[in-house]
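Q: Structure tokens for this one, please.
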Amino acid sequence: MSRNRYERGWVLAALLALGTAAAGGAEKPLAFAYRSFWPEFEAMRQFKDAGVNTVCIFAANTANSLGQPYCKYPPVWRWFGKYDFASLDKQFDDVLAVNPSANFICMVDLNSPSWLDHQLALQGHSGESDSFTMLSCACANPAWRKATGEYLAAVVKHMEARYGDRVLAYLLAGGQTDEWMDYSRGVAGRAKAQAWKAWLKAHGRAEQPVPALERLDRAAFENFLRDPATERDVLDYAQFTGDVIVDTVLGFAAQTRALIPQQRQIGMFFGYILQLTHSRLVWGGHLEYERLYASTNIDFFISPGTYSDRPMGGGSGFMVPNGTRVLNGKGFLHEIDHRTPTYNVKLDGFVSIAWMVPWKDQAETDAGLKREFALATINGSSLWCFDMWGGVFKTPETMRVVAQGKKLWERFGAQPLAGRAEVALVVDPQSARYVNDLHPLVKEIYQGTRNKLNRLGAPFEVFSFNDLARVDLSPYKLVVFPGLFEVTPEKAALLKARVCKAGRTVLFVYAPGISDGSTLDPARIQELTGTAFKKPGVSVAQRDGWTAAYAASYADVTPQALKKLAAAAGVTLYCDDEVPVFASGQLVAIHLAQGGVKTITLPVACREVRELYTGRVVPVQGKQFPYTFATPDTALFEMVP
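A: Here is the predicted structure, written as tokens:
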């Protein structure tokens, strides 16, 4: 495909998605659901009693990252064109025996069974069909795509014929941990090398070999950022790696869409730019998420709550840019796979996952689950409680919180609640390709900045740079760019026209605009920010009516520094403490590790607030009210006019 045809297709998809967003925003939440790798029937009964009737079934054919089978049932995909549908049916029928009212999210395992990997190797595709660890190599392999597409079609047709409208959605799962992550780190076999040549031709680039692997592990500028003047092939290869995965996923999504009725949804794990760090930010394959988010064949995306900010006092958060998916009219499913003190750590007599640190006690479990439920409910997101290998939701106290969370989600989750954020975090996948993702600073760019904003004491939203051309930026008084390394002339014009406006504060961190898309030049940093590259601390300069804040070091971007900038910009700080706040419409959630009496400030006047888990009503005076929090605690307030 020519570059122009590719760009026209992407723009058309974006316009179609924008039309969906303009017509009514993101998809309504699909479900409050239950999921486990293993058939935890007693837990399913407890969730049924709590009003949860949607169950995710993962009829896996493959092993997990620990080498253990995902599934307790026999594999479904047994050979080319040979399927054990009796095993598939039993997994759904066993749930129906426990809960005759159950409906399903059907997760389709598109990873390679060991027999397929071995057979394709014998056909000359050695190392090019292990989709779990070498995803981009498998996606570039026509033989793998053909066999996998045939399996996908067989499963979907069978499910539609046997279970019909009990299926709410199909989840297309592949790659490392079935989250479409690529662990090949740039390795290319014959098929991927041929696909690279085709990609270069389609993008108007001269033919060149796959970059040497040792070049992928270093970068020209401070061993952190790549210079497009000398490393353009590496930047292109990073985009190609993501493109070959996205092209494959788009093909599977279109194939599935053609086999199901319109009301059935399609979802997948993708777009983890706020989570992936060491060796995965660039080479994990998720940076090309914008093409998937613009697809009319995909209805929603999924991620676990972030793994890096789960303890008490942390803000959790989606791994994907929430503002981008909303702008594209997509739904979201928040995976609550957080560990409680009762979770099962032993997969068998030899393998355990005890290194996964759980919440410490029932008080932390209650506060943590309320935090996760509030995050999903306030953002109009679906969710599932992921029981993994059992025992996570074991106590009656835990299930009482689940039942309460389900009722509140049903009441508020499907309402079109207007966001309350006055702070925007902007990620830029095009700039992220510049990063040497083996550098220790990589974890500070997006994951680290998001975790610090989690302690702002005010809500914030996350957008992608390309969203800035069409999102309404008027509510945002502070805009944060922690990784805007590439500022082309087109990007510079967009910043000037839409972002750097009178009355707004814009924070740039570490080398913003150092590249214009062709070369690196540190002098460009001062041109953009008014401050020299290496000046320590957070510098503030007035620039034509707007305020440019600049931090040369990620270490200077502390929660305290962010709160100071936000307050100076006029952002409503709901709490003086460094705590997470979620807010939209009439809902405000505040989570604390250490309780006590706190004064809460609201963005709008109201008569009183009602804490929805306890029913406690507190009067509001001058947009403020006192509230006594437990240790730890999450409170979900409804503002009463």
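A few notes: The two ends are 56 Å apart (CA to CA). The chain has two domains: 3-182+242-412, 418-641.
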